[in-house]
Amino acid sequence: MASVQDIRRRLRAVRNTRKITRAMEMVAAARLRKSEQRIREMRPYADRMMELMVGTARASTSLRGLTLLQRHEDERNVAIVPITGDRGLAGGFNAQVLRRAFALERELRAEGKDVSWLVSGKKGASTLRFRRYEVANAYTGFSDRPAYTDAQAIAHAVAQLYTDADVDRVVIVYNQYVSPLVQRVTVTDVLPIPEHLLEQGDEEQQEAASRGDFIYEPEPEEILQRLLPVYLETEIYRALLESAASEQGARMSAMRNATKSAGELIESLTLAMNRARQAAITQEILEVVAGADALTQS
Hints:
Layout (H helix, E strand, L loop, with lengths): L3 H56 L17 E6 L10 H18 L3 E7 L1 H9 L4 E5 L8 H16 L5 E11 L2 E10 L3 H5 L3 H7 L10 H78 L1
Helix pairs in contact: 1-6, 1-7, 4-7
């Protein structure tokens, strides 16, 4: 049985840990509110971008000259871009994205396709390198607060790979934010950009795109050529924001569970310390009584 001093020392360590996890939970909650606000501000921009693309595509006579829309005849190489965090202590946030990315890799290789890796986040980059994967590009240092320029860097890299025919398809894997307790792993094809997005859209986008007659200067094809890279950047930026909010939600939940577990452990250790202290006192009393009996008999 552990001594009272050992249990007291462990109690002190657990209490200090609980203070840290409680503080980290509060920080994650504050950052989560900011991330949710950024997602809400992003959605109108993304919707307006889609409306503009739908309207321009409807006015275009041909989409064949747009590189980012053209599907390669033979899909031999697929680029996977997992979006992870720069830090841990977020439950299964990073692990579930990487698990899904590796499962996708196995599916593609079973179909006879090669896989290239680009990754966002230190955790994803370190895991891939630990497994001896060759990483074409790694983007780190912004997982908790991504900027639009970060999305531009990733979008430019994948667009260049696709344009040069180094890859024939680009897939991003990230955590979609649902609630602080729920983060859904999402797999999205970003290149080639599906033409049906421009041809259909939802009802509101179709209505907005078909409202009124417009004169385009320059030609719609040239405008669309400029809009498609911006659309790609917007989609990746949305994924980065979703991932940032998911990371804070996962961290907040993980730290809350850790704080709760620490509290339960403190109660258990306190009970064990009281029992050990009582046993020590009882032992001392027995020794005193035994000494008194020995004196009496002598």
